[in-house]
Amino acid sequence: MMMSLLGLSIFSIVMNISMSIIITTPCGSVALADCNSSGYCTLSSDLLSCQSLPCYKINEIGACRESPAVLYDATSCFGLSSLDLRYDNVCGPGGQLDYAYVRLPIQKSGSAIYSTTGMTVTQIQAETVAATRNNLLTQLFSLNIQIASNTELNAILGLYLAYKDDMTGVTGFGMSHPYYLEKAIFSALQNFRDDTDTGKDQLITLTNIWSLSDTLLLRLRTFRKFYSTSYFFVNFAHTQFSRTYLSVKGQYTVFSLKWKQYTSNGYVQLITFTPKQFTGFGGAQSDAIMFNIIATDGTAYTLEYTLTYLITDNSAIQCAVETTSVLRIIDRNTLAESTPVDIHTYCTLSGTTRRCDIPSTVIDAQIPAGKAFYIACS
Asked: From which domain of life does this come (predicted)?
């Protein structure tokens, strides 16, 4: 049925009124019942007030598309020029998507406490028969990590770690696809990053997340010779020595591990993550990187390599490389930093491209197990 011109006019007026409410109503004036549904406001922890969201959490396009904007800090939040189904962000600082704050789509269905058949985390974990445990992997994967509280999140991650042998094939039954482990990792990181609960346990949560990452790297050894995936704020790559290099691209930078000679087969495995997603890393000039170099049996392997750090957009990332480029080493679980390591002698600047070629001798002397590092200015 066609709508009359009068009907269209009324519909247009209603739409304009609706959009004006979205665009010009401060969060403090939004009714508590409508706060979260506005797309640009959130309830405070005490549920007594409606507060503005950080711009990367805004999911209402209208909140970033018009002016004047009184819903958030208009000096740092602008509508993105294009939207992508891979993430929920509709605005960002300077109109750019910041990889550290990508919001991957949140699964609305499911529970953080019960599986699809109603089993609890405790019940799934209590199963001891290997064949039954293997069949319960689908129940494990159905738990919704993205909506979990911090306590629930750590319970789920603990369950994943308890099923390590089942997911990696040690029990002799079918192995899980790496994606299920990756999904748990990026969902857990996003949950942790966006959780405003001041009582969340950083040490336990990050220890669980990176322990699960180690399980993923173990699974990749039996999955494929070469493997690489990117989730913006965390990325994974794996290859055999025969490939002779492995690269992971960040938003404005690239890390490449390159080697020439080896006496037996083995694997190079990388994980990179954006440290800015955690508090206190605003000065990071690169992603943080962790890597394994192992023989086929999983034991440590000594390999002579060069780690190349390349800035692809020097207008976005700048520091005086001749004197100030340093490695900042961090404990991946506590995020505590060690003394910076001067690497400026391995760095050059040519036009808009900065490049640092750091030899394995420098890195191996500084990076013990369980550590990550990023590049910054001193």
From this structure: Eukaryota
